[in-house]
């Protein structure tokens, strides 16, 4: 991503998410597997071409974002070094540009943010803390882990998700900039994720948060990290989260599932990219079988109630389904929804994509119920 657009992108997309909470002129329709809230904000978005071969069921708003992303002409991530891949445009850039081009109103943020560096084994990591402007606390606390295959992306790229959760749940959110691969190999990101959780538990009161009401949320690689944090908290006998929300999590290492086959060439995530991410984060491919990577092989007993969100047009769709089944078999309460017609990374696009707005509202409702 171009550095000069990064922060503006984050601000626009972050503020955009609050639209999901405050737009009043909406109507709700229910499908067999998801609740779709039609947004007037993005009603004018129309794709320029036909649906792509890899995603014939794609929704118009989602397709418009994907077309904008393709328009930048970036080289495929799987052909680049990690350093160059981090310079590519992201779905957040595409959303930002569409918001500007369509003169979509951006609400004022309902949160304040501050940065915090903390010590971890072998270095430091950065946290971004979102605190609601309304109310006095103590607020519930959410520790959030961004996506990017353990290799790319950052807090700005995923600002929309973290800010949206803070605003809709009325919670303090601690977004974690764990160290990335290949500079930091497995299990660095996993250890950083848990260190950040420990810090949040110990410092909850100073954050105006209630240490008895803490949850973890993650997207993609971050979904894997969030689940691992719950497992490590259980095993280390510290307070486990009261809930976890896993959005299209990486949950196993077999890249021959039905969704990997069906959406091998999907955008913005495809099978080749997943192989590239795996090679960058792991030292040897044998590590792909480690229960920290292949969560379906982990001991999942005693984990908190879990919400799993999946996207239809996503190689990782089946990962989420398999993990839900494994959690249920381990006696964990699981609630899950699949959103049709959308791709990987849709969750943070609430200002443009109705399914994202619905998914964020669903996640917020699940978290609020858990915090009660």
Automatic annotation (TrEMBL):
Residues passing through the membrane, by range: none
Keywords noted in UniProt: Hydrolase, Signal
Keyword Translocase carried by entry: no
Coiled coil: none
InterPro entries: AB_hydrolase_3, AB_hydrolase_fold, GDXG_lipolytic_enzyme
Statement: the UniProt record of this protein carries the keyword Signal: yes
Signal peptide (from-to): 1-23
Record-annotated Alpha/beta hydrolase fold-3 domain positions: 142-347
Domain of life: Bacteria
Alphabetical list of Pfam families matching this protein: Abhydrolase_3
UniProt protein name: Alpha/beta hydrolase fold-3 domain-containing protein
Record organism: Pedobacter jeongneungensis
């Amino acid at each position: 991503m171009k550095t000069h657009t990064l922060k503006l992108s984050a601000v626009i997309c972050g503020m955009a998410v609050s639209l999901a909470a405050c737009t009043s002129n909406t109507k709700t329709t229910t499908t067999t597997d998801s609740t779709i809230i039609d947004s007037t904000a993005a009603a004018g978005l129309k794709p320029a071409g036909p649906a792509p071969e890899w995603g014939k069921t794609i929704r118009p708003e989602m397709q418009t974002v994907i077309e904008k992303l393709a328009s930048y002409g970036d080289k495929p991530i799987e052909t680049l070094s990690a350093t160059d891949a981090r310079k590519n445009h992201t779905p957040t850039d595409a959303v930002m540009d569409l918001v500007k081009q369509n003169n979509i109103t951006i609400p004022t943020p309902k949160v304040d943010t501050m940065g915090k560096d903390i010590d971890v084994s072998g270095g430091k990591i950065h946290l971004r803390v979102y605190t609601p402007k309304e109310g006095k606390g103590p607020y519930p606390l959410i520790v959030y882990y961004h996506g990017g295959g353990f290799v790319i992306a950052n807090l700005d790229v995923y600002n929309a998700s973290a800010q949206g959760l803070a605003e809709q749940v009325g919670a303090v959110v601690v977004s974690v900039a764990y160290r990335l691969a290949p500079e930091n190999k497995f299990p660095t990101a996993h250890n950083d994720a848990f260190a950040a959780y420990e810090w949040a538990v110990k410092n909850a009161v100073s954050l105006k948060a209630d240490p008895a009401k803490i949850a973890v949320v993650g997207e993609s690689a971050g979904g894997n990290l969030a689940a691992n944090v719950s497992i490590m908290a259980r095993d280390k006998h510290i307070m486990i989260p009261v809930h976890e929300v896993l959005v299209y999590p990486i949950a196993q290492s077999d890249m021959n599932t039905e969704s990997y086959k069906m959406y091998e060439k999907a955008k913005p995530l495809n099978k080749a990219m997943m192989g590239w991410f795996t090679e960058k984060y792991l030292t040897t491919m044998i590590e792909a079988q480690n229960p920290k990577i292949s969560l379906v092989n982990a001991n999942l007993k005693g984990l908190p109630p879990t919400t799993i969100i999946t996207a239809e047009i996503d190689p990782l769709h089946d990962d989420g389904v398999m993990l839900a089944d494994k959690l249920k078999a381990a006696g964990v309460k699981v609630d899950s929804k699949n959103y049709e017609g959308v791709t990987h990374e849709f969750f943070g696009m609430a200002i443009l994509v109705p399914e994202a707005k619905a998914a964020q509202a669903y996640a917020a409702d699940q978290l609020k119920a858990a915090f009660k």
